[in-house]
Structures are given as C-alpha cells and as structure tokens.
Design goal:
About 35% of the residues lie in helices and about 15% in strands. With about 280 residues, it is an alpha/beta fold. The chain is globular. Bound molecules: zinc ion (2 copies).
C-alpha cells in the first residue's frame, strides 16, 4: 500500500475544487495506506482570488486536527492515515516568515516548492520560456538549489520538474542531460541534508496530455539513478491531487516504474520525521 504525500483541498488551496470529505473518501477508495494534506501557502502571491494565497494556520489546524489519524491508529482501525502538512511556495524574501510558520504549528510534513523563478511564473507568464529550455531548465534547477540552501526547515522538495508542465512547444519532458551539473548539485545537497525527493505523478499525466507515449511519459530514470548514486535516501510519491478522484493518480504504474529504476522503499513524514516503507 502506498502513501500519497501531496494533496490539496478547498477552501485552503485557491486552485482546488475538492473538499476534505471528498479527499478522504477518495483516499479510502484508492486503497492508500494514507495521505498527507499539503495545502498551498503562497505568501505574497495573488492568483485567481484577488487576495493572498495563504491559509490562516490557526483556522487550518482548528478545522483539520479533529480529522487527523496517525498511521498506527489508522492501521488498527483499517482506515487510511490522514496527516496534515503544507506546500510552501518559496520566494527569496520569505525565509524568516516560513521558518516562523513551520516552527509555530504542528505540521506532519513540509513540501518546499518553487512556483516563481527569478520573479517569473511559468503558470501565468507566456514569456517564461523565451530563452529556450536549454537555458531555462538548468536555471530552474539551479534556483531550486538556492532555495534549499537558504531554507532548511522542510522535508520534501516538491515537483523538481514543475516548469516542464508549462512548456508548450513539444519535447517538454525534463531530462537529466538538460542540466547534469545542476541536478548533481541539487541531489547532493538533498542527500547531505537527508531530505526527500518527490516524484510528482501530475507531471507524468501532463506529459501524456502533451502527446508523450505511455512509456515516454514517465520521468527520466537517470534522475533516480543519480539521486541514489549521490547518496539520496528518501523518495516520496505525490499525486498533487486538487480535484475529486485524483489522489493516488497513476500510483500503481509509477510504483512499477520506481522499482524498475532501482527504488525499493518510499518515505512519508509523521510529526516531521521520516517513515520508510517497502514497495516490493
Ligand atoms: Zn506546487
Ligand atoms: Zn501542490
């Protein structure tokens, strides 16, 4: 049984349509061991709603804590675990604020994500790829290294291949060979710090919608190989579910791919501590 480490619900995430009840129902139907809710906390960002895309952490924990079910209790009750985390959107000036947030509330798991690169957001900026992916992809990975060097209080590096979801010219799939030095530096830092690399299944599904074949849609296996070679210990699998029915998205397929890439265990976090489980 797999554990989904990345999911969103409304009203806490601005771009999510599912409720917490729907997410928990979906989690049970999919036969997951558990799920961690990781709603967006995007300080100083204003997407669709016209106000800042953060949740009030007091309200968040007041609403969700009664539903929390730790893995041991959940297993005893024959239910999926439900844990409470957040996906933090990093911007260079937010380090102290994010440190305050993670130190002040009892999150199970913190995903550190980059949605804005050097002031530009691939989700909304049509000129994001003007320099071509040969320059933009290495820069995006170097920017993530800068992020995880400047903040250490996180558990999982979210969707390292995020920008590739928004490249519309074909051949969008991110490959290790696009930025070998940058990937090596990033993976080395993650390994040294004992942090977790996320495999985000939403990117794979996105590649399929862009025309990649089933076999080609999966991430480049070189990522996993290099991460493990450089001492990486923790890998998580996240659906990035925003809508009802999307949790555990293509998890069985991704599990087979992970095993083929040489992975035999995955990680989720409880009370900010890694929990490993075997996948074969
Ligand atoms: Zn994200
Ligand atoms: Zn997300």
């Amino acid at each position: 049984m797999l554990f989904d480490t990345h999911s969103h619900v409304k009203p806490w995430s601005h771009d999510s349509s599912q409720t917490i009840e729907q997410l928990l129902d979906d989690t049970a139907k999919k036969g997951l061991a558990g799920i961690c809710l990781t709603d967006h906390y995007e300080k100083d960002m204003f997407y669709e709603r016209g106000y800042e895309d953060i949740f009030d952490p007091d309200d968040y924990f007041a609403a969700l804590s009664p539903l929390r079910l730790d893995p041991k209790t959940a297993a005893a009750q024959g239910k999926p675990a439900f844990l409470i985390g957040a996906e933090l959107g990093w911007l260079p000036h937010l380090c102290n604020h994010l440190l305050w947030l993670t130190a002040s509330y009892p999150f199970d798991s913190i995903i550190m994500s980059m949605h804005v690169f050097d002031g530009k957001d691939p989700y909304v900026d049509e000129h994001f790829f003007d320099e071509g992916i040969e320059k933009v992809y290495p820069k995006s990975i170097a920017a993530m290294l800068e992020m995880i060097t400047s903040v250490s209080d996180y558990d999982i590096l979210g969707h390292f291949d995020y920008v590739s979801r928004y490249y519309k010219q074909g051949n969008a799939k991110m490959l290790y060979k696009h930025a070998p030095d940058e990937f090596d530096s990033l993976f080395r830092k993650l390994s040294e710090d004992g942090k977790c690399l996320e495999i985000n299944t939403k990117t794979t599904v996105r590649m399929r919608s862009m025309g990649y074949s089933y076999a080609e849609s999966f991430p480049d296996q070189a990522f996993i190989r290099r991460f493990l070679e450089l001492g990486g210990e923790h890998i998580s699998i996240g659906s990035d579910s925003h809508h009802y029915g999307d949790s555990a998205l293509i998890f069985d397929e991704m599990k087979d791919w992970l095993i083929a890439a040489g992975v035999n265990k995955l990680t989720y976090f409880v009370d900010r501590e890694p929990v490993e489980y075997k996948i074969y």
